Amino acid sequence: MSLLAVRDLRVRYGKVVALEGVSLAVEEGEVVTLVGANGAGKSTLLRAVMGLVPVAAGAVEVAGAHTTGRRAHEMARLGIGYVPEGRGTLRTLSVRENMLLGASARMERNDARGAEAEMERVLERFPALRERAGQLAGTLSGGQQQMLVIARALMGRPRLLLLDEPSLGLAPIVARTIFATIAELRAQGVTVLLVEQNAQAALALASRGYVLEMGRIVLEGAGLLGDPRVRAAYLGEIAAG
Ligand code: ATP
């Protein structure tokens, strides 16, 4: 049974069909990458899984349980961590305070000590954040802010992490540190569905990938990085033949 299964999904914004007949699966322990051009529907897919946009047809299942139509906070309770595009740190709160927002389930149970322990565990992976734990999030660099939103999502110990364009707007050298972080998460067994425009780096990390074009999956598999159609369309190479 897949950890995440999306079946025949359709999402519309008014008359615009953003996704049509989209099916994909993520197995426990995998990093799966979804690539595609601007406007292909990648963010919409993550938002639909997370219950942030209504689903017009099709189904979302988490570990075999039907979750279509569940709201985002319910999906978070089911162990789905979501890092939307564009960072979204609270700039006037400290790194520490931003991270505690990711432990809302524990805080609701008044388990502040558990939340602090969780923060220590997560900060072990992010030494740059540990050094800046008391600093306001707004003073961090773009790369550090991206680390922070990933760290915040990890505070809930997600079974599956949805990452939307984590490298967007970062200098290449900084983007590389983000991809290295995702590789570390993979090594630790965290399951990730990664949406990226940087197809090269994202597919290199992933066990499998999907290509989305105009709301439909047009290619999928384990060897996408070597696929001439992917290389031509997304890696800027001239197609052979
Ligand atoms: P990007 O990388 O630019 O975010 P994407 O692949 O994530 O692109 P989506 O943002 O999912 O694509 O958009 C898919 C389609 O849905 C596009 O045609 C977009 O214009 C449209 N769309 C997205 N959000 C809305 C909205 N809130 N209202 C109307 N149309 C939308």
What does the largest sheet look like?
A: 6 strands, mixed
Structural class: alpha/beta
Query: On the 0-100 scale, what is the average pLDDT?
Result: 92
Which strand-content bin applies to the residues? Answer: 25-35%
Widest β-sheet, arrangement of strands: 6-7-8-3-9-10
The helical percent reads: 25-40%
Q: Tell me the total number of β-strands.
A: 10
Can you tag this structure with a few keywords?
binds adenosine-5'-triphosphate; 241 residues; globular; 36% helix; alpha/beta; 25% strand; six-stranded mixed beta sheet
Fold topology:
Elements: E1 4-13, E2 16-26, E3 31-35, H1 42-49, E4 57-62, E5 65-66, H2 72-77, E6 80-83, H3 95-101, H4 104-108, H5 112-123, H6 127-131, H7 142-154, E7 160-164, H8 172-187, E8 191-196, H9 199-205, E9 208-213, E10 216-221, H10 228-234
The structure holds adenosine-5'-triphosphate.
Describe this structure in words.
The protein is an alpha/beta fold and 241 residues long. It contains ten helices and ten strands. The protein has helices at residues 42-49, 72-77, 95-101, 104-108, 112-123, 127-131, 142-154, 172-187, 199-205, 228-234; strands at residues 4-13, 16-26, 31-35, 57-62, 65-66, 80-83, 160-164, 191-196, 208-213, 216-221. A six-stranded mixed beta sheet has the order 6-7-8-3-9-10, sandwiched between helices. A four-stranded antiparallel beta sheet has the order 2-1-4-5, with helices on one face. α3 (95-101) packs parallel to α7. Bound molecules: adenosine-5'-triphosphate (ATP). The site of adenosine-5'-triphosphate (ATP) has 11 residues, from β2 and α1. Adenosine-5'-triphosphate binds at residues 13, 16, 18, 36, 38-44.
